[in-house]
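Researcher: Next entry in the queue.
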Amino acid sequence: MSAEINELAYALDTFYFLLSGALVMWMAAGFTMLESGLVRAKNTTEILTKNISLYAIACIMYMVIGYNIMYGAGVTSIIPSASLILGAADNSAAAIAAGSDAYYSDISDFFFQVVFVATAMSIISGAVAERMKLWSFLLFTVILTGVIYPVQGFWSWGGGFLDEAGFADFAGSGIVHMFGAAAALAAVIVLGPRKGKYGPNGEVKPIPGTNMPLATLGVFILWLGWFGFNGGSELKVSDVDSANAVALIFANTNLSAAGGVVAALITAKLMFGKADLTMALNGGIAGLVSITAGPDVPSLLAASLIGAVGGVLVVFSIVGLDKLKLDDPVGAISAHGTAGIWGLLAVPLWYDAATFGAQILGIISIFAWTFGASIVLWLILKAVMGIRVTEEEEMQGLDITECGVEAYPDFTKTQ
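Model: Structure for this entry, 415 residues:
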């Protein structure tokens, strides 16, 4: 009877892992819709092409080398080991019956982890929208998903030096979201702003997106997918404690997003005199990112407040980056980076075992590695093949110049 119970738990936890991964995979659609709505019509097809391509590349590269770097034995706690091609070996019910402590399929773990990698890369896509060469972006995707992401993932989730130091990041406020924002920041610095975004005296000129309903749908899709992102990170659901933890994680994730929306909306009204939809959308994402580092402990009220702080911070961060002439068309660096840092720093407020020292070490280590490796790679790509389209191509729109297909052929205007 014990073996039968173990097999049932194994099957249930594996299915829960796979279902959670499928929800996270659906976040790729959310990022795609959000970015498509916040860029001009003439750049929509290129955004769609980037997002489906980066997802496919991430899956292949993480299988070829990334997963083995992130979860290999490691040469040291800082330097990971590497081997090619993830095998198909898996745990089995027989191993469980024989006393193995594994409680879900190895391949389900790979599937769950690979969709996280794609999420990190999707963050960069929106930040460089409307002026980056498609093939330079895709080549960067190969290196980031195959090497840059797995190295810092090894330091934390793979049992490296950050894990040994007590760094706590339950589902990836730093490991996934701040990571993606750091790589995006490096790209934005090297790439430069869109033509016409900033005036000669530093004034910011809004460049409206083409489809606000689509952008809003994208955020709702991300909100839904985040239940798999955070809930799946509990890793199991087959016992009472785990089931209760998953319920709390779902509720906290939902309330933190809600707090982010409301706080960002109020902040925008106070600052601009208008209920800015784009700020509300980014407030929701900021709330989701903020709770991701520790959704399994705070009370429901505390989760709402964590999200609300993230919602306020994202508005100020977006405005601040514009003042620095760092052009991020969708607010990705702020929603994932600024909120990600806040989420990591909030963890010691609720986790007795976590310390601010370990969290700060994690923030500095992940940011320094990601930003440093990314900016070197962007500079190499710029020197070798260029990363920015010409001024004429930017004016015409990347749909025609990069993809040859317009998303809205009856309505597109160059501007």
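Model: The longest helix spans residues 2-38.
Researcher: Noted, moving on.
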